Every structure is written in C-alpha cells, then in structure tokens.
C-alpha cells in the first residue's frame, strides 16, 4: 500500500503510516497562508532564478548547448533539483499544467546533459571532468545526486516524473556500479544521498539503492574525509555513526545524515541505527536546540556549537537545518509513534522554519538569529530577508517543504488515525474523512467532525503538545489522547489547547541567555521588535511576574496575528551605567532601581522583519 | 635625535619621545620571564619553522634555487619578515652573533629572490606572476612588503640591516613607482604597509614613502576593494577613514590601519587623522573590547562584532589583534601623552597578549577566548596552545613584540621622564638613569632610585592605573602623578599601587555576560580553571559580596603566581534544572537555594592552559 502514497517519505515499516499530500487539504491558518504565497510568489520566483542564477545555463553547458562559463557553486545543480521537487509536490497538491511542463522541460535538459554512463554534474562535467569523484570530501556530487533522486521520486508520485526518474535511475545505477559493485569506499562530504537513495529504493524496489545507502552510512567515521578543507568533524566523519553521541559540525550535514540513518533502519530493521540516532536526538534537544527549534550555533562552519552554546545574536539556525530537522523528526515519529518528535516538528515549523520567509513569500532568510542587535550587518546573509542568495540552498528547500506540508499533518496505523498538526481542513485516510475546524494557533479550540467512517470502532489520536499544561486532553505515554469508538458520520469531537502566554526561562547552563526570559503562546515563540516599543528595545526588561495579555491584530504586510502585551519596565539609559577607564566593565553595577513601567508588545517570531529592519530580541533581560 | 632611537616606532613629533629597546633593561617579573623564554625557546623554534613551514623554501623557489611547489598561504613571506624583526630586536636587546648571521643569510636569499625591478613576493612570483598587483583585495602583496620594511628598519636600527634595508628600499621604490608616480590607485585588502612605510620614511627620510602611506590611507573607502571574497567592510573599505565611527571587519586589519593613520598624522600634522582614530578608539573601548583587552568577537571573518557583542566563549581575540592594538595605543600615547592608552597597553599586555604563549614559550594561542566550555574542539586553532599553525601569523608576531618590550616602558619629553609600565630594571634616558625595584604585578610596591641625573629640576611622571583606586599616587588629567624636583643621585621615590582584588561587573548591555562577574587584581584579569576547583566549574557561582583573598603560589610549569581564593557557592547539579519536552527551556526556573559554600580558586588568565586542557572561565555567574 505504501507505494501508492504521494508524499516525500513512504517507509515500508514503522509505527505510523503517512498520508498523501493531496489527502490533506489545508483550508486556512498559517499553513494555508504559506501554501498560498508559496504557489503565488515563491515558486514563480524560484523558477525564474533557475535561469538567472546559472543553474539551468550550467546544465546547457554540460549538454554542449550553451556558451559562457560555469556559474555559481559546485552544488548549483541541486538548486534546480529542489525547485523541481517543490514544483512536483505543488502539482500533487493542486494540479496545474504548467508544473508538469517545467518538470518535462528540465528532465529533457538533464537527459541531454547526462553522460552516457549516467554521471550527471554540470560543475564537474564543465570545469573539471578529470576530477570526477576525486574530491568527494567537498565535491557535493552525491549530494546533488540525492536531490535529483528526491525530485524524481516527487515527480513520479505526482504523476509527471517518467523522464526525470529515468535520468535519476541512470545516475543512481552509476553510483551503485562505482561505490557498491566496484567497491569504491568514497563518501560525500555532504550527506544527503543516503535518505534519497532509500526513497528511490522505496519507489523502485531496486535493492542496490538501499544497500548503497547503508554502505555510505557505515563508511562514515572511517577517516575517508580528508583533513583538508573543513575536516572530518565538520562532515561527521570523526566517529562511526553508531558511536557518536552528539551532533557536531555542519548542522545541515548532520541532520540529513540522521534522516538517512532512520531511513535505512526502517527498511532493514537494524536497531543499532535507530538507537544511535535517538541518542543523538536526545542530546541535541537537551543541549543544542534553540527555543525556535533552530539548529547551528556558529556562523563559522554553519555548525553546531558545544553543549549549551546557544547564543541568540550569533545563532546560525540555517533555514535548511530547520527543514532537515523536520525531515528527521518526521521519520522518527513514523518509526516510533512518539509525539515528542511531532512536538519538535511543530516548534520548528512555526518558528525556525516559518521565520525564513517573508509574509508575502518573496524574500528569505538563510540565517535565523534570535536577536538583531543593530542595523549594521557585515554579512550579506544576515540583516533583512533577501530575494535570493549566491548560495541559494534555502529558498527552493523552503518551497519543497511548504508544498508538501499536507504530508506532515496526520498518519494512520492499524488502530485508526493520528492528528499531529492542527490545521483547518480535510483529512482523508482510506475510508475515513475528517473535517478539522480551528483557528489554531491563534485560538486553542479544535473541532473534529467525522464525515466518512468505516464500520466498527477505530481510534482518533490527537497529539497533546508538551506545552499544553491544562488543556482538555490527557496524553498517553506517547503524548497522544486517544478516543476510540464506533464513529458515525457527523460525529464531532471538540477540545481546547491551553494557549495561555508563557514566560519561559533558559536552563541555567546556557551562558548566553542568563538572566533573560522569552515569551511563548501555544506553538509560537514571540519576540520584541523595536518598531512596537516606546524607547530603546535594549532598555526593556521583564519581571518574573510580568503580566502577559493577548491582543488580536492585523500586522501590516504580515496579515493576521495575535500580539502579546507585557507589563515591562524601561531601565535607566545606558549612560547611567558605570564604566572603567572607558571600558564597559566596572566594580559597581548599574543602578536599575530608577526604572519606568512600560507596556512592551511582542509579535510571533515567525512574523518578524516584515515591517522595518530594526532591532529584535526573543530573549529579554529579567529585572 | 629620534633617528638614533633603536626601537620600532620613532616619530618626528608627539607629546612623548620613545627610548631605545636597549635603554631599558628588564631584570625580572613577567616581562623578564617572557623575554627569557622568548630568547631561549620561542625564537629558536620560530627560526626552525621558517624552513619547515615553507617560508624560506618558497623564497628559494622564487630565486630559482629550489625545487618543489610553493607551500602555505599567499602571505607566507610575512612569517619570515616578522621572524627577522624579532631576531633583530633580540639582537638589539642582548647581542648574539647568531642573530646578525640569520638576518644576513635571509637578506641574501631575499636579494636573490627579488626581481630586478624590486618586486618581491614568492607566492606571486612562483605561482601566478601574471597576476601581480591584480588581486590586491586579497593578495597581501603590500601587507608582506610592510612586514619586510619593518624587519629592515629593525635590523638597521639593531646594526645588522644593511642588505635587508637595500632589499626593502628596492621593493618600496617599486611600490612608489606603481602606486604613487604612475598613479595606480590600488590598496591592499590587508592594511599594514601604511605604518611600515612611515617608519621606513622615518629611517630613510625618503618622503615618497610617507606620501604613499598617506595616499593608501586616503584611498580607503572609495570602493577599491571588490565585493568578491570577504567584501569591503571586512577590509575597512566601506567608508573613508575620516568618516568611519566604529571598528569593523577583520580586527587585525582595522588595528594595523589605525597605527598607520596615527603614524601619518605624526609626520604630516593632519589633525583630521588623529581625530578620527581617537573617535574610533573611544568607540572600540566602550563597546568592542574584551576585559582582557582582546579584540574581535567573531570567528567568522576574525572580525569585530556589533557594539556590546562580546561573547566569552566564542570571542576570537586573535593574538595578532592584541599586538596591533598595542602598536596603535603606543602611537596614540606618544602622540597625546594620555595615560589611558598606556592603561590599555598594560591591560592588553598582561592578559590578551600574554595568554597567547605557554609559560615555557614553546606553544601559542591564535584565538584567546574567555571561556573554554568543553574538551571537544572542532577548530584546530582552538583548544590547547599549539607549536605552530598553517596560518602562522601569530607566533613570530608575538616574538617581535616580546623582544621589543623595553620600548614600551618609558618615554621622555621636555619636562623629564615618564614611566608607563612598572617592571624591575634600569631605564636610561640621556643623562638620566633610573633603577626600578618592584615585584609588580604580584606586589604593588614600586621603588624608583635615581642613579644618574643631569643638573637642575626635571619631572618624574608615574602612570596611575585607572584601577588603582586608593593607591599613593594622585593622577593629573592625563593619568600621571608628577614629581618635579632637582634630583640627586641616590634619591628614591617609593609608592604603592592598590592591588586589592576586584569583583568586576559587565555593562548591562553586554548580553553575553549578563549575570556574571569577573575578578581582577592590579593589571591582571583572573580566571577559574577546572583543575583548581572542587566539583564542576560550571556549577560554580560568586555572590556580589564574595570575599576575595590572595595566595602566593608556584604554578607547576608556569612559575610564580598569586592565586585568588573566592568564597563561592556550588549550585545544585544541572539535573535539578527543569526542562520542557526535553528542551533546556521551562516555565519554572532552577531552584538554586540548595547551594553549598565552596572555595573557588582563580589564576591569572595569562597563565591558563599551562596544566591540563580542562574547562576555564573568566566570567562566572553571580548568585
């Protein structure tokens, strides 16, 4: 049955089974808004950039058709592959003839660019054919292949992938010959192909793809990544995956690798793979995850930091890392049925991920810090959201996830249906059809109506978010409330999640957040933007008993929101702070008693930077 | 007269005049220890590395003598130049025939490598002669030239520089022809040549060198640095120097540029240059300087951060930035006579700079953070001190400063003699000879004995450190206590500086240090190392009224020290801290009431990492 599911992840085993993207219609709320602007603005912009950024022209060069020089990064092909995947899922969600046409045109170009032996990478074919597979530690050749495979799987499941799948299989077969049959032990410096190979196996049942994925995972930690460049730790080659206890190095690399590890477990039953991945998940969540679900504490190497190294201002929290984290958590959720993974997906979706895109879908963040300190930014990848990037890994990655959001809402198992994310819409799962009515996350009321139902009893499982301390639902050990009955068409079940605003404190070992608090409501992390405050944002302080109240609002340019007003204080101006020989260190502390009561206004973090480019902070000092 | 001073900086004007390195004999204390290990261990190690690291072999290739490929960075030549400068000043300080021999041998090689037209850069000559001066935004060609000029000035003033000076002048004349006479407006992406050209002018009185330095400074901020690579802000090309208000980009670049700016002011009298540099100094000290005097808050780009962005763990504080800061502050001190610059030199010397080298002079830090969080370091440039680096800008830079430390102790003016740094030893300035007896910085007592004195009155000026709140000396507006009298041989003046340990608090706007305190005593910043504590360092907290007491001690491997014992508390273990769905964020804070009294032991920061590789922190949470 799983072969007929139209979605990015269709495992053969696991505690839960996924639904097709088009089996979940999303009718509104933030998810609905994101899908609308993604279709109307982001995807057309991305398609246009495929030409402008060099991705398509590079492939023409490889096909011997164009003129000029290769442009962009060695992984420039992957932009097109992610764009194709976004287009395919969008066609699956809501068909439009333009989408298969773009896929067909691209697949034809790829077929012409592909070497007769199946190899395909415009950078190496055009600029250094003699170095093919010779620089695997940083070449991204398998990384690009992986994105091609995912695009081909998506297009095939969306019904428009025949030629693209042929291209993908020829490349996959080429990899299999070289790295499985002929026994080359090379691994790519950037994991990604592992999860893609497993999905290609799921689609095609060609077992060598799964075997190659397993071999690539088993080969990590054997010193195959050279010390040159960023080194083994950066690329998770410092330890075998079954031995590593903590996420290290480049965040996106680690997180895609984890997705591949769980994928191989799901197809082979190798428990040691699930076990090591869950061990690192627990470590990652306890020590290296931002309150937004973001990952990667360092600009240097786009990397994880040490345990408890979680700076708000210099957090990297790359948009791609949020996407990779959602992929990994979704695999863990379906493998184990445990709601903690759905909780983290929700936190990541509504915060680290959603913040990556402007409200109108035309601009993107690459880096998602929790504080904007000043107006001056040295790094082109910081500051305001931008339409595109020289390294444009994020925008098409964002688009493919938004198009496929329906995949992440609900699952089935032998007992019935589980709802993981609360969105207004319709969920179809075999003989069951549910309508979900809710204004979540602005309001906590959710009403589920059974429209179609098979005969006999089945269980409706509803995720109880860990933050919903006093809602209507009582969770089981996995974090779900179960309602088992012989449902009749028209039956409804209504419940409330607890959206009382929360003042959240950091663990005392997070040095960078000491003495601060953040505000959350439901799944949303809030932030203060300068534009909403009286006085300097950096003079604002909360108190441990700060009163928080909600205000319905329309944010110009960003649509519907709920603001939170906090009874805060404004500290005496910074000029009152003692200094020492001009330095900002002194034996006496600032006299903060002379503060002024003030109302501070917070907006959902994901909606920040939709007005001006002013200061922002998620974590605010506590008096 | 200034032409006869044997030291790195001999300006024609200014409020104060420098002394020769060999006019200040340092007999002990930390400065004396650093000079001893520098001579016995560091300099021999550096000379050996000139061969091993490729610096000398590269020049042989350029001379058509060697075989093999160019090794290392495009600025590899500069390692040899800094090493030559260190050797020259060491010879000036305490002659040894081996030093002039090394200089002569190197100069001969450089002369053979130099092109007939005067150009000299092994990287470009060997690997890409067609791109000479075509990649100035990152080529380091003028940067390397500047270090050659400084080495030649040092060797000449030390009496062993004839051939090296000839090489330097030929290259300088080549630069003058291209960039002054022929009117090429290029600037080097890495400032350094400006200050070096001015010093070469001071030595040779060849005015075109000064004019070129002025032109290079005036040309910054005109968009000559391309957007490619690290971009204009990184290389201080974002604004003309007279318009920029704050230090930005690569810290070492900014600080060397400032030294050149003050140098040009001192020779031309262009007050607008002094004014803009002082404006940035005040901004830098108030907002972007670590308590150790370190500069550069970001690994990414080895760069300054935003105002108040001063993380302890991820601070970069490159050793070279400390050296460049001392160079700049020394120029400002001599230009203005203001003690605040000597204060910052002292803070930087005893902390950010001194920490860069192991107690035995055989290992070096490139990066000098204020916190070591764990044992696992991804970056080869972090962790323990290392014998050498692929990018070895720091070690020979450290050596040249240690050899020339005598230059930074005292100055003269028409009124008499000023003592800026308190070291046991002898100071000769014309007809005046002083003996200084002190156990500073371990003890605050200083006794100055006049051994030789001219007839009539003159003024002895003694710097009163800004931290010496209740010492014997009363400072004037410039921070100096003046004793004017008709001194007789044998006269003594004894005073005490206040070395009471201080608990120091950060400005409330430094987010990364909120809720923490540091310990200082005299010029020394202290830190806690794990090895000295009972229990986990990260469970330690101080209280606002923590009692601090000093303990005389010998630190194994690091020699004499004074420890500080603090009445601290041990917080309940981290496992008692609430978490939220596994994340380190919760609506309830840790219960810290169940803490245990404990004695915490601090060591001077500069002596850290001389025992094990354990955790360290300068800033410790306050209960």
From TrEMBL, chains A, B:
Q: Which Pfam families match?
A: Beta-AFase-like_GH127_cat, Glyco_hydro127C, Glyco_hydro127M
Q: What is this protein called?
A: Glycoside hydrolase family 127 protein
Q: Which residues form the Non-reducing end beta-L-arabinofuranosidase-like GH127 catalytic domain?
A: 23-406
What species is given as this protein's source?
Nonomuraea solani
Q: Give me any GO biological process, just one.
A: carbohydrate metabolic process
Fetch the SUPFAM superfamilies from UniProt: Six-hairpin glycosidases (SSF48208)
Q: Which domain of life is it from?
A: Bacteria
Q: Where is the Non-reducing end beta-L-arabinofuranosidase-like GH127 middle domain?
A: 417-498
- Write down the PANTHER family for this protein, in alphabetical order: DUF1680 DOMAIN PROTEIN (AFU_ORTHOLOGUE AFUA_1G08910)
Q: Domain named Non-reducing end beta-L-arabinofuranosidase-like GH127 C-terminal: which ranges?
A: 501-621
């Amino acid at each position: 049955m799983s072969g007929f599911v139209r979605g990015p992840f269709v495992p053969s085993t696991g505690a839960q089974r996924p639904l097709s993207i088009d089996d979940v219609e999303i009718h509104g709320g933030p998810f609905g808004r994101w899908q609308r602007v993604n279709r109307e603005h982001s995807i057309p912009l991305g398609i246009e950039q495929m030409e402008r950024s060099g991705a398509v022209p590079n492939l023409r060069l490889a096909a011997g058709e164009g003129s000029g020089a290769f442009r962009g990064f060695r992984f420039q092909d992957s932009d097109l592959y992610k764009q194709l995947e976004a287009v395919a899922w969008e066609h699956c969600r809501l068909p439009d003839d333009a989408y298969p046409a773009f896929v067909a045109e691209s697949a034809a170009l790829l077929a012409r660019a592909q070497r007769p032996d199946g190899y395909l990478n415009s950078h190496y074919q055009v600029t250094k054919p003699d170095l093919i597979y010779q620089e695997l530690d940083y070449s991204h050749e398998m990384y690009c292949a992986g994105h091609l495979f995912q695009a081909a799987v998506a297009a095939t499941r969306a019904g428009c992938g025949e030629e693209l799948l042929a291209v993908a299989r020829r490349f996959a077969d080429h990899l299999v010959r070289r790295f499985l049959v002929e026994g080359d032990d090379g691994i790519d410096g950037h994991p990604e192909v592992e999860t893609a190979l497993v999905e290609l196996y799921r689609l095609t049942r060609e077992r060598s793809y799964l075997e190659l994925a397993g071999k690539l995972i088993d080969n990590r930690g054997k010193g195959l990544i050279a010390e040159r460049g960023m080194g083994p730790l950066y690329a998770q080659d410092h330890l075998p995956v079954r031995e590593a206890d903590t996420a290290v190095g480049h965040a996106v690399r680690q997180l895609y690798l984890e997705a591949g590890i769980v994928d191989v477990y799901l197809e082979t039953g190798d428990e040691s793979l699930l076990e090591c991945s869950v061990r690192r998940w627990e470590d990652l969540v306890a020590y290296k995850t931002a309150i937004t679900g973001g990952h990667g504490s360092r600009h240097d190497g786009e990397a994880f930091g040490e345990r408890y190294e979680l700076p708000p201002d210099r957090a990297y929290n790359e948009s791609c890392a949020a996407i990779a984290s959602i992929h990994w958590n979704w695999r863990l959720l379906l493998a184990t049925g445990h709601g903690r993974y759905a909780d983290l997906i929700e936190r990541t979706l509504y915060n680290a991920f959603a913040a990556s895109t402007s409200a109108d879908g035309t601009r993107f963040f690459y880096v998602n810090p929790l504080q904007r300190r000043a107006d001056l930014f040295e790094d082109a990848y910081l500051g305001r959201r931008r339409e595109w990037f020289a390294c444009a890994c994020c925008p098409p990655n964002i688009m493919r996830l938004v198009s496929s959001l329906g995949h992440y809402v609900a699952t089935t198992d032998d007992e019935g249906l589980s709802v993981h994310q609360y969105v207004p819409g319709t969920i179809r799962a075999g003989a069951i059809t549910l309508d979900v009515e809710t204004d979540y996350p602005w309001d906590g009321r959710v009403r589920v109506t059974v429209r179609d139902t098979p005969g006999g009893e089945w269980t409706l499982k509803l995720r109880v978010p860990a933050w919903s301390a006093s809602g209507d639902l009582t969770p089981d050990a996995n974090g779900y409330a179960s309602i088992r009955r012989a449902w009749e068409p028209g039956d409804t079940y209504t419940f409330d999640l607890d959206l009382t605003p929360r003042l959240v404190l950091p663990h005392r070992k997070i040095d960078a957040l000491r003495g601060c608090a953040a505000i959350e409501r439901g799944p949303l992390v809030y932030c203060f933007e300068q534009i909403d405050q009286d006085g300097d944002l950096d003079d604002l302080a909360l108190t441990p008993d700060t009163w928080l109240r909600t205000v319905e609002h329309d944010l110009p340019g960003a649509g519907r929101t709920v603001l939170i007003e906090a009874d805060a204080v404004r500290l005496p101006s910074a000029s009152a702070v003692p200094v020492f020989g001009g330095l900002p260190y002194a034996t006496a502390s600032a006299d903060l008693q002379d503060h002024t009561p003030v109302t501070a206004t917070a907006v959902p973090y994901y909606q920040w930077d939709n007005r001006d480019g002013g200061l922002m902070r998620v974590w605010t000092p506590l008096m």
